[in-house]
Each structure stands twice: as structure tokens, then as C-alpha cells.
Amino acid sequence: MPSHRYRMPPEWATHEMTLLTWPDNRETWPGARLNRVEHVYADILEALTPHEKVLLLVANEDAQQAAASMIQNRNIGWDRVRMVRMPTNDVWIRDYGPITLLREHRDEPEDGAKGERSRDMVMCDWGYNAWGGKYPPYDDDNAVPGKLAELLDYPLVLPGMILEGGSIEVNGAGFLLTTESVLMNPNRNPEMSRFQIEKNLRKYLGVDKILWLRRGLRGDDTDGHIDDLARFVGPQTIVTAVSDDPSDPNYEILRENRDRLVNANDCKGVPFEVIELPLPATRIEGTTVDGSEHVPASYANFYIANGCVLVPLYDKRYDDQVLKLFRRLFPDRSIKGIPCNDLVWGQGSIHCITQQVPKLRVPGRPSGTQ
Hints:
By secondary structure, the protein is of the alpha/beta class. The chain has one domain: L-arginine/glycine Amidinotransferase, Chain A. It has helices spanning 33-48, 61-72, 93-96, 130-133, 139-152, 180-183, 194-205, 251-262, 319-329, 341-344, 350-353; strands at 2-7, 15-21, 54-58, 81-85, 99-107, 117-124, 156-157, 169-170, 175-179, 209-213, 230-234, 237-242, 273-278, 303-305, 308-313, 334-339, 355-358. Strands 1-5-6-7 form a four-stranded mixed β-sheet. Strands 4-3-2-17 form a four-stranded mixed β-sheet. A three-stranded mixed β-sheet has the order 8-9-10, with helices on both faces. Helix 1 crosses helix 2. The two termini are 37 Å apart. Mean pLDDT is 93; it is low at 364-370.
């Protein structure tokens, strides 16, 4: 009988490609906002494609033509972008897209002899309900993992649980960060206990230790995703958003989150290095589509790709300071700042719209960039 072990590689592991969905939902970005966000996507593709391939989903012919027109006017190599027509409801592929896992097999013969070991990559379809049913319809988005697994010829695994990719963060060494306000929210898996949720995270993501932060940013319609709060930049190092303004509505919760991180130990009992990220202005003029006066603007919503890190920029008071920090944290990757005030108006940023597909490493060969 074969036995399987799964593990989610950290984001800095070598990628086969990045998944993106071209924006076309005018409820998320009404009027002229949609065109401004298309330009942000072009900025991201221009920064990303020199380093790795991109699979770009386009929901319909209009989206395909818009993407093609934008790409041909930029320094983006067509040979690095594979455009695929696939129905979607919105762009947040971090949350509804497949989480690609390393699977280790061991065939165990009935006679008790030592079995053969092998490794492959599988796509995990956790199930998606638009952050607790907030934005119907979401059936097209929910179908994306199965369709991509079939298209790319990956085995598909279904844990039978609602989980968004932006709600989890792993260090590749057995540790996972998440938030109580999301995974324990009855709008996701009301029939599951904390123990059952943790059991699934351990089984399918290959983690041994889980740290729960309490909740997320004001204006975050996901109920508080971890990728706006705290992220691993290495197995032992965490960056976390912190406000220095006591009148900021995020001040207290971000301080509490930081304290939990500072007091945490890794799987070997060693404390993490915790580095603070400033919090940009999150209050906007007017309101977003769902009536919020705040957006979840956070420098923690960066994306680590092959050879580069894409860092969202929001606030001239802090942008240069943050870019300098990321250059120190990732000396072997180019750091590209992407202005994201238009993107985050839709209540997500760079990490929310990207999803990595890790590359299967051949034993004995070092990983590298493409």
C-alpha cells in the first residue's frame, strides 16, 4: 500500500510559474479604476517575467483583448506569458487558486521490506466560498483548482475544507502562521473544531507547529488574512506590520500580534527574529464597494518570486524605508516596488493576486532561478 506525505514549500523555493488572473470585474473596480488596475498588472508582469513564467487566466474575450493590448505596449516577453481562457469571478487567485504541494510516496510491500520512495507535485483544492459567502457568485473561482490541475497535468487532492491561500503562511521548516478571525470563523467551516482544522493543516501542509494571531486589519473583507499581517522572509525571520500611531484603529491589534510573534519559538524551540514593517495610511476618501472607509494596505503583502521580490508601495513616508529593508532581507534577489493604491482599493494587493506553483527539485541538484 502506498503512503503519502505532503508539504507546502515556502514561497522563496524555486517556482515553476506564477498564476495570475487578469482584472475584469467592474464591481471590484468601478469606472476608470479598472483601467488603472490593468496598468498595475502590467507593472507586475513587466517586473515578474524576466525571472519566471506566468500563467495568466483571462475570463472572457474582452479580458483577453485588454490583457493582450496592455502586454504588447510593455516590455513583457510573450514567450514568458501563457494566456489561458478560463471563467473566473474575480482576480484573487491567492485565495481560490490551487496550493501546490510536494508529495512524497512510499510503497510499503506486504512482506515488510523497505519500499520505494518517490516525489511529485500535486495541486490542493481546499474549496472556496468568497470569504464566507460575501461576494456571490463565486462558483467559477471555486472551479479553478480542478481545471488548472487538469490543464497542467497535476494530481488533485481535496481535503474537504474551506481554506484561502492568503490565510496561511509557512516557513518550510514545519511552522505555520494563521489567524483566529479567519480559520475559526463560522462562515468557513462551522462544523469543524479547532483541533480538526489544525489536523488538516498538519496533514496537507506538512507543518508541526501552528501559531494563531487574533485578527487582521480594519477594512480587510477576508476577516483578517495573515498575508496582510506577518510573513516569513526566511525560516527564522518574520516581518510584521506595526502602527506607531496610537489613534490608528489597527494600533492595538498589530501590537498584540507582534507580541505573540516575539514570544513564539520555532519547531526546535528557537525564538524567531521579528522585524517590524511600518503601516501605511489605510483610510481612504469615500468608501470602498462594501462601504469600508479603510483598505487593507500593508507592506506585508509582498510576493517572493524567482530572482525578485515584488513589494507594494502606498505611502511616501515609508516606501523608501521599506524597499531598503527588503534589499537587506533579500540580497540575492532584485527588489521591485509596485505602486498599489489603485489595486488595494479593491481590498487586496500583490500577494492576493499571485499564487506560486513550486518547482519539483531533483534530489542532489541545488535550486536556482529560471
